[in-house]
Amino acid sequence: MPIDVNMYFQPVYFSPKKLLNFWKNIGRETPWQLADDSVDGHACVDSLGNRTGNYIYDGGGIYLYLITKNEIKKLDYYAPHFFEKEVCPGRKGRISILKIEQLFDRHFHL
């Protein structure tokens, strides 16, 4: 039976091999262990929790919902491209979410 959610939901079908490869690559980034901006702080934060460097309030963000039968965890990263590439690189969560975004882009052509 065809999936009928709403007019914007369009299923994407993968071969089992491609799907397994996609999930293996996602798993390498350990999404359930990632710290997002709610944990690490928005923008650039020093070891005392104070903001440092430049920051913006008009950039986009990346949200990732991790869904299991028992739990939904939302990861929220504000302007990770800007902060990781331009201002304060090196935060593991931002690096991983950018890799995960690339995987989704490559597989789903977003």
Report on the architecture of this protein.
This protein is of the alpha+beta class and 110 residues long. Helix content is 38%, strand content 13%. It contains four helices and two strands. A two-stranded antiparallel ribbon has the order 1-2. A hairpin with a 4-residue loop joins strand 1 (61-67) and strand 2 (72-78).
- Assembly state (oligomeric): single chain
Number of helices: 4
How many β-strand stretches? 2
Beta-strand content: 5-15%
CA(first)-CA(last) distance? 26 Å
On the 0-100 scale, what is the average pLDDT?
88
Strand order of the largest sheet: 1-2
What is the structural class? alpha+beta
The radius of gyration is 16 Å
Please write the string of helix (H) and strand (E) elements: HHEEHH
Largest sheet: 2 strands, antiparallel
Q: Which residue ranges are poorly predicted, with pLDDT under 50 across at least 5 consecutive positions? A: none
Work out the helicity level. 25-40%
